[in-house]
Specification:
The structure holds 2 protein chains of 2 kinds. Chain A is α+β, with helices and mostly antiparallel strands. Chain A is built from 17 helices and 18 strands. Chain A folds into 3 domains: about 290 residues, no CATH class; about 120 residues, no CATH class; about 60 residues, Arc Repressor Mutant, subunit A (Orthogonal Bundle). In chain A, the strands form 4 sheets. In chain A, strands 1, 3, 7, 8, 9, 12, 13, 14, 15 and 16 form a 10-stranded mixed beta sheet that branches. Chain A has a 3-stranded antiparallel beta sheet with strand order 6-5-17, with no helix packed on it. A two-stranded antiparallel ribbon of chain A has the order 4-18. Chain B has a domain of about 40 residues: Orthogonal Bundle (Histone, subunit A), CATH 1.10.20. The longest helix of chain B is centred in the N-terminal third of the chain and has 16 residues. Classes of the chains: A alpha+beta, B mainly alpha. At the A-B interface, strand 2, helix 2, strand 11 and strand 18 of A face strand 1, helix 3 and strand 2 of B. Strand 11 of chain A pairs antiparallel with strand 2 of chain B.
Chain lengths: ~500, ~100
């Protein structure tokens, strides 16, 4: 339903509250499918990763992949869920060409995890807990291609039976920012747990949003729309903001919100109706008799708990306590597992933790923002970072030269020795104070009026001399020594 | 419970079956007969009996996560009514749900 978005006043919008719950599907990074031994890897030639079970052939029997259960329990423990000791699988019946059996095996009444929460931190530093309703295991469907053949749709069953966990939140999300923070936290968790690659473009992580609005203070929820296929965090935010405006506008016009399934078009930023309530599927869930029930022992759950890796929240705490880093630094360092692991390696080689954090959160993070696919470890080994930090600490090179010249040169030429590169770029600080004094003399003689200003008490002009000396020396000076010598020189001229 | 024409239409739709209008009367009769027969069972008090879902007592049948190839792409495709050597071909579907 494409509606013109008229501009209601800010006051009108402020009367309303946004209510969002997310359903996140995470493809588990197992070697095989959930109920059969064919490969679950992404990117094979069409219909190469198949088996009797994923083809849905009569008489074939599903058999549960043990690793899927372990992965689902890991996610449940990481999100503070109750792990249900008795589990069952159910059939969800619907007809679609990429679902050859005519039903999806999922967990309806007895999911593996229930009632957890994910803690999120917002930009203003405040914390919120988004409650989880459940996490359940299920199989993915195959892939349909509609636009390649004139007369028919083409079916590729490589994805049929790939294991998924569906993480269902309670409708606790109140803004697009919270929705984005929650989704990135879930992505961070699956990556730290190493159970899903979290790649939204390839569809390893997919998100549907249930969105409704209500007047602030109302206790009942409004009727909700489910927006499908949000394939990036940004698109989730756009869809949430668009729906909030659309729904408020309709209500203001006295129109009832229809409980529809919507599609979000990333090109136009607009939602449209995919299925109306009347067209909603009747899934007729019933227990899957081909799979025996699953009972989870205390020992198994305890064992998985003991083997859980350190999670982002614990890492932040440890960085603050052991390395005396700020909350901001620690959060930034742990936002990506690969970066955090890299930092970990660097601090194994240096005890200047703050310098290591600054190096990673500075030049490394901005490099990775521009080159997200790069593996920084291959470009610049952790030992090299530690060496650079010690060179700065010893006053042999300065930080500006590191950020602007040394780091870019090293990542461009991986494998080149740090000291060789420092030589080649001629970055070693001139420890010869005669040379330094020469630059200072030059700088001071260029601005006689500024010297007078300095003597009249305007200490701010020091920065100008400092900058000039830096420029003349091409950054090869130790700022601390230079500052001291400039002050001495200026005092001498008085 | 009684089956009416509306229920038949709904069930036919769910099963993607075309029901001929002149079959409807006999379907109605048959289905109601089946239900009445089953209602006989309701005379028993089953409030203390757990529903029977599984016919064996087996629990926790697992498979290790090891790849095995059992079907070749050519074998997978060969029984399909329509295929192009790479993909299964089906009637064009627009609505993706």
């Amino acid at each position: 339903m494409k509606t013109e978005q008229k501009t209601l006043s800010q006051e009108v919008f402020e009367k309303y509250e946004l209510v969002v719950g997310l359903e996140i599907h995470a493809q588990l990074s197992t070697a095989t499918k959930i109920f059969s031994s064919d490969s679950a890897a992404f990117g094979a030639a069409p219909n190469h990763h198949i088996s009797l079970v994923s083809l849905g052939l009569p008489g074939s029997l599903p058999k549960l992949n043990k690793k899927v259960v372990t992965f689902a329990i890991k996610m449940g423990l990481a999100t503070n869920c109750t792990i249900n000791r008795v589990n069952r699988f159910d059939r969800k019946n619907y007809f679609y060409a990429d679902l050859p059996k005519g039903y999806q095996i999922t967990q309806d009444e007895m999911p593996i995890c229930q009632r957890g929460y994910v803690a999120i931190t917002l930009k203003d530093g405040s914390e919120r807990k988004i409650r989880l309703n459940r996490i359940h295991m299920e199989e993915d469907a195959g892939k349909s291609i509609h636009d390649r053949d004139q007369r028919s749709s083409l079916i590729d069953l490589n994805r049929a039976g790939v294991p998924l966990i569906e993480i269902v939140s309670e409708p606790d999300i109140r803004s697009a920012e919270e929705a984005a923070a929650y989704l990135s936290e879930v992505r961070k968790l699956v990556r730290y747990l190493d159970i899903c690659d979290g790649n939204m473009e390839e569809g390893s992580l997919r998100c549907d949003a249930n969105i409704s609005v209500r007047l602030k203070g109302d206790t009942e929820y409004g009727s909700r729309c489910e927006v499908k296929n949000l394939n990036s965090i940004r698109n989730l935010q756009r869809a949430v903001n668009y729906e909030f405006k659309r729904q408020v506008q309709l209500i203001e016009e006295g129109i009832k919100i229809e409980q529809n399934t919507l599609n979000f078009d990333a090109a136009t930023g607009v939602t449209s109706v995919l299925r109306s309530k009347e067209m909603a599927y009747d899934y007729r869930y019933f227990p899957e008799p081909d799979l025996p029930p699953l009972t989870l022992s205390e020992e198994l759950i305890q064992q998985i708990k003991d083997e859980l890796p350190e999670l982002p929240e614990q890492r932040v705490k440890r960085y603050r306590e052991s390395f005396a880093l700020s909350e901001y630094d620690a959060q930034l360092l742990t936002s990506d597992k690969a970066v955090s692991d890299y930092f970990q390696e660097v601090v194994n080689h240096t005890s200047n933790y703050k310098a290591a954090a600054n190096f990673i959160n500075g030049p490394v993070q901005s490099y990775l923002n521009e080159n997200p696919a790069e593996n920084i470890k291959m470009k610049l080994p952790a030992e090299s970072v530690a060496l650079i930090i010690s060179l700065v600490d010893d006053g042999k090179i300065n930080n500006t030269a590191v950020t602007q010249q040394l780091f870019p040169a090293l990542v461009k030429n991986p494998g080149v020795d740090v000291l060789d590169m420092v030589q080649e770029l001629n970055l070693l600080i001139d420890t010869d104070s005669d040379g330094l004094l020469k630059y200072i003399d030059q700088a001071v003689s260029m601005y006689p009026d500024k010297v007078t200003e300095y003597h009249k008490g305007k200490k701010g002009v020091l920065g100008l001399f400092m900058g000039e000396v830096m420029k003349l020396s091409k950054g090869k000076i130790d700022p601390k020594t230079a500052n001291k010598l400039i002050v001495e020189k200026l005092d001498l001229l008085k | 419970m009684n089956i009416d024409n509306e229920t038949i239409a709904k069930m036919a739709h769910l099963a993607r079956l075309d029901v001929n209008p002149n079959e409807q009367a006999s379907l109605l009769k048959d289905m109601n007969n089946i239900l009445h027969f089953m209602e006989k069972l309701n005379e028993l008090d089953t409030s203390t009996v757990e529903p029977l879902i599984y016919l064996t007592d087996e629990v926790n049948v697992f498979r290790e996560d090891e790849v095995q190839t059992e079907v070749s792409p050519a074998d997978a495709l060969k029984n399909a009514p329509m295929q192009d050597g790479t993909y299964f071909q089906v009637a064009k579907v627009i609505d993706k749900g």
